[in-house]
């Protein structure tokens, strides 16, 4: 049987490690049956006769992974940025998320989100929905149509949130199980469920214990928030006096990583030594969301330490705490925030480099999905072609410099083509 082969030609650049870029100028990137099958300066004879997509002087990068984004908050980008987290949730986010009980509104809002995500450099994303099961299914249907690889979660909340969006504990668990049955009946190819307790303040011990039972039976991953804001962290200490630290409140219910519970925790701005050690031990993925942390005055996460300790870390747009789904902007914010932390907080923590933030946005976050986010052999063939000819320069630039410039200047106008597991996405 003839293999399905796709060949792209251009300036290929990616990261195997956080320390350096791998650059292959004017080379051929080969996809075989949806996986990377090699990079060649001269195409081998055995591959002759296969069609070649020649993108000239364009840059070809791995697809990017957004480890943390709230789809229902997309209409609120740029609003309420004068508030801190808890006040912002109460005044802006909970009222907006309540709108998703209206399926007409949900369809219009999620349609905009899905279309814009498709046109971005993101090929994979971990997405929060709302507590509403029908609207969550609508979001999953729309994302499935994009061809992007996504995890989507129906949110769970049974305390400390407005009555119009708060669930009873058993209702939340029953709705989650019904949602998972709905998902199983859809036969999605690209869209998968992820358990999504919003955060400890909004989830009772009984709800967390019930979600663990569902997780143990389904083996689903988990996504939530951790140590984002000082007021939030202090509140968790009051609500969970027996927990050693914020993350321990998740771990006591079995929803904090480990071999049987793949987990993303967003933010981790105020994680102490104990929490960091537990995250490292349990293999928890950290979703660093720098723009959101600045917009909501949360702080600057110790990302240099996370990288130096070899922890699992990627980037999140965290819309609508963040203002855009554009992960190039998330990369630039991560560099800028790290410079402020180095200058103002801890001069032992060197600022992040372009290589490091690109690694986080590609291979670092992609690891949550398996072998994704790199052009190493055997990785899923997710690729984005960038045409930076709009950005004129009076002097020649090498490939690394052109990509670094993209980190600060790129938007959907630079994206010429996009592939997920070897399938081209219609832009």
Reconstruct the topology from this structure.
Blueprint: E1 5-17, E2 20-32, E3 35-40, E4 52-62, E5 64-70, H1 85-98, H2 103-119, E6 122-128, H3 133-146, E7 149-153, E8 155-156, H4 169-184, E9 191-193, E10 196-197, H5 205-218, E11 222-226, H6 230-239, H7 246-251, E12 263-267, H8 273-282, E13 285-288, H9 290-295, H10 303-308, E14 313-315, H11 327-344, H12 354-366, E15 383-386, H13 399-409, E16 415-420, E17 423-424
Parallel strand pairs: 1-4, 5-6, 6-7, 7-9, 8-10, 11-12, 12-13, 13-14
Antiparallel strand pairs: 1-2, 2-3, 4-15, 15-16, 16-17
Helix pairs in contact: 2-3, 3-4, 4-5, 11-12, 11-13
CA-CA gap between termini: 31 Å
Order of helices and strands: EEEEEHHEHEEHEEHEHHEHEHHEHHEHEE
Count, helices? 13
- Helix- and strand-based class? alpha/beta
Strand adjacency order, main sheet:
3-2-1-4-15-16-17
Global mean pLDDT: 97
- Unreliable sequence segments: none
Q: How is the main sheet built?
A: 7 strands, mixed
- Write down how many β-strands occur, each being a DSSP E stretch of 2 or more residues: 17
Rg from Cα: 21 Å
How would you sum up the global shape?
A: globular
- Per DSSP, what share of the residues sits in E-state strands of 2 or more residues? 15-25%
Describe this structure in words.
The protein is an alpha/beta fold. The protein has helices at 85-98, 103-119, 133-146, 169-184, 205-218, 230-239, 246-251, 273-282, 290-295, 303-308, 327-344, 354-366, 399-409, and strands spanning 5-17, 20-32, 35-40, 52-62, 64-70, 122-128, 149-153, 155-156, 191-193, 196-197, 222-226, 263-267, 285-288, 313-315, 383-386, 415-420, 423-424. Helix 3 packs parallel to helix 4 and helix 4 (169-184) packs parallel to helix 5. The radius of gyration is 21 Å and the shape is globular.
């Amino acid at each position: 049987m003839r293999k399905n082969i796709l060949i792209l030609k251009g300036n290929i650049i990616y990261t195997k490690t956080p320390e350096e870029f791998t650059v292959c100028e004017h080379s051929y990137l080969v996809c075989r049956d949806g996986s990377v099958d090699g990079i060649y300066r001269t195409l081998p004879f055995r591959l002759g006769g296969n069609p070649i997509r020649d993108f000239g002087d364009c840059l070809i990068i791995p697809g990017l992974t957004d480890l943390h984004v709230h789809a229902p908050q997309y209409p609120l980008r740029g609003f309420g940025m004068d508030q801190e987290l808890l006040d912002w949730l109460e005044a802006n986010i909970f009222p907006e998320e309540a709108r998703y009980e209206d399926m007409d509104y949900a369809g219009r809002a999620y349609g905009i989100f899905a279309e814009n995500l498709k046109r971005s450099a993101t090929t994979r994303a971990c997405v929060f929905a709302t507590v509403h099961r029908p609207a969550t299914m609508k979001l999953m249907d729309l994302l499935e149509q994009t061809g992007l690889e996504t995890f989507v979660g129906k949110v769970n909340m049974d305390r400390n949130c407005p009555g119009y969006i708060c669930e009873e504990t058993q209702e939340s668990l029953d709705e989650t199980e019904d949602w998972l049955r709905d998902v199983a009946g859809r036969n999605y190819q690209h869209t998968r469920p992820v358990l999504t307790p919003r955060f400890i303040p909004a989830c009772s011990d009984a709800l967390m214990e019930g979600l663990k039972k569902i997780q143990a039976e389904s083996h689903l991953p988990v996504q939530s928030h951790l140590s984002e804001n000082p007021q939030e962290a202090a509140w968790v200490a009051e609500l969970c006096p027996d927990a050693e630290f914020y993350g321990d409140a998740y771990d006591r219910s079995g929803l904090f990583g480990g071999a049987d519970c793949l987990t993303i925790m967003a933010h981790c701005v105020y994680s102490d030594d104990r929490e960091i050690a537990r995250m490292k031990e349990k293999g928890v993925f950290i979703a660093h969301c720098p723009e959101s942390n600045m917009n909501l005055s949360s702080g600057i996460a110790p990302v240099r330490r996370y990288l130096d300790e070899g922890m699992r870390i990627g980037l999140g747009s965290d819309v609508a705490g963040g203002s855009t789904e554009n992960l190039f902007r998330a990369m630039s914010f991560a560099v800028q925030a790290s410079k402020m932390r180095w200058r103002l907080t801890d001069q032992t923590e060197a600022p992040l480099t372009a290589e490091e933030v690109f690694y986080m946005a590609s291979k670092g976050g992609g690891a949550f999905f398996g072998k994704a986010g790199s052009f190493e052999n055997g990785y899923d063939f997710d690729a984005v072609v960038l045409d930076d000819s709009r950005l004129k320069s009076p002097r020649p630039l090498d490939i690394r410099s052109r990509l670094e410039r993209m980190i600060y200047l790129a938007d959907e106008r630079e994206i010429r083509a996009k592939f997920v597991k070897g399938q081209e996405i219609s832009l």
